[in-house]
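Below is how a single chain appears once it has passed through the pipeline. First comes the sequence as given, then the structure the pipeline wrote out for it. We keep one example in the README because the format questions we get most often are answered faster by looking than by reading.
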Amino acid sequence: MSSYFNTTIYTHLITLLLPQPPTVLEIEILPSTISQTILHTGHCIGVPKPLLILCFLRARTILFSHLTNTPDQHGVIPTQKEALNATLVILLFDAGHVSALNLRKRSLWAVRTTALALPFDDGNDKINQSNRQDLVSVVQRELTCIESFVTSPLYKHAKSSTLWAHRWWIVKWFLQDLAGAMIDSGDYVDVQGEEGGLITFVGKELKIVMRAGEGHAGNYHAWNYARETVRLVMLLPPTDSERLHEGPAHMRRIGEAWRCWVQVVHQWCLGHPRDISGWSFLLFLMEQPPRHAENREVIMRDVLQKTNKFVERLGWQGQSVDWFLASATHLQMDPNR
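Resulting structure:
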């Protein structure tokens, strides 16, 4: 193929991978027998593998020319923006490309550093607000991008330890480290585009993990990410405004959220009874109910009863369900829990 044709395909693919406003995409790699061109309908993208390989080679050249500060074949050193765009194509082809994700981390960290560079006072308030909005926008785009990869029908992405570790890095630093500055200002709401703050955020993350679990059974990396995210939010102390203005109401919301998480994950497990990773995460939730959760014993007993009815009704035989029932029964009878 001509260099012009390769450039046109590459530019078109980059445009599709960067929708405005940021949208979760469903991306699929197609065999060459289905199509010779990139297919695009709504939020769905189909990329023939031969074309993806050509785009990957071009993107890899751009990335490493930027990283090594070496001119490309045209004598030009790619800019930061061009290199970041190239990482999208690279990650579409290779979900475990560490160099591509490291560049994206450095870019996020640079925005974060700028957002927190000035002290919080009246003189810098407008600048800080603008910088925080830029940070939230960048974080939103990055989370949306990774969600597109791990929930699309791609061969390795849903179970990629590298992608899930990258998403956990974002959650760890941009939700925990900035908790005091962002929750009170409402920026946590903006990260996911609707009200509900951290609790809503975790609920949405669980839905993403469950979609990834449907793509790859036994998706340990996805469910482990869910563990870390839930643990982080459960351990986060309430902000000053929550402590002063809400108090017990904030505690009750966490307890109610825990109940919803248990019920939603349990329904998913009943729909995927062979998936030991899902059952293991459900047991993790049941092992550490928050102190302010109401009717903890009733909820846990209800989970066991519904699971037993499922086994009896279908005559189900499987090690995953048997292990869960044995472990959960022991957990319920443990007087030290």
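The beta strands are 26-30, 39-41, 44-48.

See the next section for the split statistics.
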